[in-house]
Amino acid sequence: MPSLQKTSPPQDPVVCPTRHDDVAASGSALIGGPIGRRALLGAGQLTPVRVVVLVTIGMFALGMVQKLPCYNWAWFRGTTSQYTHACYSDIPHLFSGRGFADGLVPYFDRIGGDIPFLEYPVLTGLFMEVAAWLTPGGGDMTEREQAFWMANAGLLMVCAAVLAVCVARTHRRRPWDGLLVALAPAFALTATINWDLLAVALTAAALLMWSRGRPLGFGVLIGLATAAKFYPALLLVPVFLLCWRAGKWRECGTAVAGAAGAWLVVNLPVMLLAPEGWKQFYVFSTERNIDFGSVWLFISQTTGESIRPETANYYALFLMMLAVAGLAHLTFHAPRRPRLVQLAFLIVAAFVLTNKVYSPQYVLWLVPLAALARPRWRDFLVWQACEVMYFLGIWLYLAYTTSGNKQGLPTDGYQFTIVLHVLGTLFLCAVVVRDILVPDRDGVRRDGSDDPSGGVLDGAKDVFVLGRAAHPARHAAPAVEGPRVDWGVSRE
After folding, report:
1. How far is 377 from 18, CA to CA, in rounded Å?
2. pTM value > 0.70
3. DSSP letter (8 states) at residue 170
4. Domain containing 77: what range?
């Protein structure tokens, strides 16, 4: 059975994308061209991590500017304008719609209407309440909603900075991969639509903890992230599968226990003191109808048949079970143990594709995972182009439906953007799977690395493999080669 041993670090301490990625090399012409051999990477005040953080904050600010038409008037003067300007945000509308303007306490005070309590997980509700505390009282409702959005934007900018630091530091030799997150167009466009960046930042921090060999810290942060959004809990699946292959049961148990404990610490008080309000998120998620962006809506619109929520729940669960089974097969049959971030991207992508709704900001869940799993500018930008088209498509479709079919994108055009989103995500999944099955195509492993962001899994021996991985050909190359550095521009 092949074993993976840690190798000495390569000679080049920091991987520079302009030396190894032809798209990055071409794009660097805007700032003077590819970096030279004699450049001091990380020297002085502008280290790679600091550059990534500054660019992230700059792009976040540009995203705020993009919302300016709505901030000034479109949020408050009819619905169509906020769609035609593609600057919609849930935040100002929920200030009054969920009782924050009236001082209601989330989960404890009844809102009324079709949704009696706040339909967000507990940690996100706390985040929203803190923003409400920071919102000055007095003035008319328009000014208060503007202030509430600004308070949330400030807090979300902190989350964006944390996200940038964590992604840039997860793989010690590849801090510049954080620029994929910072410069992602979908990141700037969707960062202030909703509160997803809180869970995304906590998930990125969890991956950083795992990369440093701290499974308990990983678990605690995953538990906190799950208390803000459901999807981070899915990362426990690839951790379980990879620890199974590597025999790291103690570390896996520590991570799961940390996640469960942190989730309970946050949820248990509300669960006991306000059970009706606490379960609203889970009731809403189960009972909601199929909604924008999902494949279920596409099927319903193209066939003319309505799909009940229970039916969509059943098929979504069935497809997720198939995805987990496929992930397990891939993990145990791959010639080399997959990297954690590769499987993390695949499981979250599967959830995104099978969910009953795909809100535009859900792309934030995948952006940091994609940057770590497949740090190639060409593939990343192809996917981002599809997501930007979907971002524009949903707002123009809403403009079409809310304006009495007078302006915007008709149903056929919107369905085309859904197909683009699905195909773009599947394309990125395909190249990640290819990297797993053909490890030599994985740019992260090209220097002889195993899983540089894998923490306790990096260089660990395999104890459970199946298929060809269990019986490699006698003439096959060793699992980990000696360190090598490719100084040329990759033509992958």
Report:
1. 10
2. yes
3. H
4. 17-27+45-469
